[in-house]
Automatic annotation (TrEMBL):
This is Acetoacetate--CoA ligase. Keywords: Ligase. Its EC number is 6.2.1.16. The lineage of its organism: Bacteria, Bacillati, Actinomycetota, Actinomycetes, Mycobacteriales. It is an enzyme of class 6 (ligase). It comes from Mycolicibacterium parafortuitum (Mycobacterium parafortuitum).
Length: 628
């Protein structure tokens, strides 16, 4: 396959990963002729790699031990080393560029200086302490993607407390399903937000959320975050694995799982991912379309760790026109722009031509995540944007990527250029044998510092082990199908589990079931998300209706409105289809994964063992609904 983008000699010479390679060569005496050689060294010498990364970024004193054991789970990184995430932000404060650019649909763009960011962070940290917030306490947010969300996170982390948040597209109930598990001490919330030209008032949801969190000692609004302190941010040094934030799984099989990440693991992983893999530094403007509900929000905040300017946008990427996101990127002079395959497909269908309609001369890289980017979409970006396309794949589980773009490696259409440094990525077949050139399970054979410290409310670690290490004991199985190519790239074929992933936002089917199956007209429901060959994503909802009922237009709207109100607008399905039943395993679990595989063209004889299904004939009916 032909490449669609090649780095120039100057790109390679100027890349931060090249500078890092020189740094490693000087301290080891080794020679790395290309990125692949550096990657091989990084995974074969974990201790040396992560120690070199720590020293390269001048993170301060560290203990002699880098990692105790490489067993998974159980690896303990940098024991005896203390730090605070916020200290790495403070060290990059400057007066010549803003820290944040705030973009909204209805107000002029606003720049927030580093002085304002840190002054307001210091003031909020003082407020949190006045409410008794101590290291280990939880502070939660119900906020859109605005600078105050960043301030709230930084203030929380600075005092050693633990941050967790939901975007305001989630209903109060959906937010409570997540944040309610954490027994938080403080809630920080906004009154509402604007999306697609409409103001979404969230007063009632904030009140319901506050009432549903009995451990709260305070609920703070945006006015409480407006104060500025002239005193420096007072940070608490914490252990490397001290919890920084809690992100949530999609909730496919019940309540979402709280995934806990530590200060140190996030700092070293994000410096690697942002600086070495994405080639960002203090001259960049980093804009990823995201929400505080999604790990890419946490990833974008990492731009502050290298002194870059980040962009907070809480509106629609397609309002007032389908190419609105490109217009914002032009206006803020973004150098790295992140979006999803679904948005790219929407621009293609709208006949958008971003480079002709907007001044994208500052743009260097388009990042893509959320689902697989088809070759046709990648080539469209090459033609209509004309920069490096850096597809990445990772997840909430590690709040980063396993593979993606690198400034020194070519881009092949529809492929991720290379595994990330330090990430021992392989593709395995079902027997645990490594494969190349064919589809296998994405596995990580050696630990990463940003793997979860633990799951919340998982005292013996059993849920954690079950999530990643059940199929291959001692090896992380992620739940993606991939192919490793002969030129070192990675092709991602989609999830091998049932997580919904629409427009780059991971969602759980359990949230939809809770809403829909509460309706008296609906006996049971099944939802799947199937990646399409053209890069689209089809999310149908199958409903089993009560005896004698038909799916009238009124009932169809009732179902949609229920999902929109009780979960979020993003969870509203593309189609609602009446089904004769829902197939289950013999133990009563809905067969989401097999049905999804059927809709992606899988052979019914191989997708599921029919004898293990409570009503095998239902599989034949679902086959008749498959798109051709």
């Amino acid at each position: 396959m032909q490449t669609q983008w090649e780095p120039t000699e100057q790109d390679i010479a100027d890349a931060r990963v090249t500078d890092f390679a020189r740094f490693v060569e000087a301290r080891t005496g080794g020679q790395f002729g290309d990125y692949a050689a550096l990657w091989r060294w990084s995974v074969e010498n974990l201790d040396d790699f992560w120690a070199a990364l720590w020293d390269y970024f001048e993170l301060g004193e560290r203990g002699e031990t880098v990692v105790e054991s490489v067993d998974m789970p159980g690896a303990r990184w940098f024991p005896g080393t203390s730090l605070n995430y916020v200290d790495q932000v403070i060290r990059h404060a400057r007066a010549d560029r803003p820290a944040i650019v705030h973009v909204s649909e209805q107000e002029p763009d606003r720049e927030m200086s580093w002085d304002e960011l840190l002054g307001r962070t210091a003031a909020l940290a003082q407020t949190l302490r006045s409410h008794g917030v101590e290291p280990g306490d939880r502070v939660v947010g119900y906020l859109p993607n605005i600078p105050e969300a960043v301030i709230a996170f930084l203030a929380t982390a600075s005092v050693g407390a633990v941050w967790s948040a939901c975007g305001q597209d989630y209903s109060a109930k959906a937010a409570l399903d997540r944040l309610g598990q954490l027994e938080p001490k403080v809630l920080i919330a906004a009154d509402g937000y604007v999306f697609a030209g409409k103001y979404r008032d969230k007063h009632e949801d904030v009140a319901a959320l506050s009432a549903g969190l009995p451990t709260l000692v305070a609920t703070l609004g945006l006015d409480d975050l407006a104060a500025h302190s002239d005193q420096p941010v007072d940070t608490v040094a914490v252990e490397f694995d001290h919890p920084l934030w809690i992100l949530f799984s999609s909730g496919t099989t019940g309540l979402p799982k709280g995934i806990v990440h530590g200060h140190g693991g996030v700092v070293v992983e994000h410096l690697k991912a942002v600086a070495l893999q994405s080639d960002m530094d203090r001259d960049d403007t980093f804009f990823w379309f995201t929400s505080p509900s999604w790990m890419m929000w946490n990833f974008q905040v990492a731009g502050l760790l290298v002194g870059a300017t980040i962009v907070c946008y809480d509106g629609s990427p397609s309002s007032p026109t389908p190419d609105a996101l490109w217009g914002i990127a032009s206006r803020v002079r973004a150098t790295v722009l992140g979006t999803s395959p679904g948005y790219v497909l929407g621009c293609m269908k709208a006949d958008a031509d971003p480079s002709k309609s907007h001044d994208l001369s500052a743009l260097r890289t388009v990042g893509i995540t959320g689902s697989s980017l088809p070759p046709a979409s990648s080539l469209w970006l090459a033609e209509h944007v004309g920069v490096q396309v850096a597809s990445i794949s990772g997840g909430t589980d590690v709040v980063s990527a396993f593979a993606g773009g690198v400034r020194t490696v070519p881009v092949w259409p529809g492929e991720l250029s290379a595994p990330y440094l330090g990430c021992a990525l392989e593709a395995w077949d079902e027997s645990g044998k490594p494969v190349r050139g064919e589809v296998g399970e994405l596995v990580i054979t050696k630990p990463l510092p940003s793997m979860p410290v633990k799951f919340w409310n998982d005292p013996d670690g059993q849920r954690y082990r079950d999530a990643y290490f059940e199929m291959f004991p001692g090896v992380w199985r992620h739940g993606d199908w991939i192919t490793l190519t002969d030129h070192g790239s990675v092709i991602v074929h989609g999830r091998s589990d049932s997580t919904l992933n629409r427009h780059g936002i991971r969602m759980g089917s359990a949230d939809i079931y809770q809403a829909v199956e509460s309706l008296p007209e609906v006996v049971e429901a099944l939802v799947i998300g199937a990646e399409q060959s053209d890069g689209g994503y089809w999310m149908p909802l199958f409903v089993v209706l009560a005896d004698g009922l038909e799916l009238t237009d009124e009932l169809r709207e009732t179902i949609k409105d229920t999902i929109r109100t009780e979960v979020s607008p993003r969870h509203v399905p593309d189609d609602i289809i009446v089904a004769p039943g829902v197939p289950h395993t013999r133990t009563g679990k809905k067969l989401e994964v097999p049905v999804k595989k059927l809709f992606q063209g899988g052979d019914s004889a191989k997708v599921v063992e029919r004898s293990a299904v409570d009503d095998p004939a239902l599989l034949d009916w679902y086959l008749t609904q498959r798109r051709t």
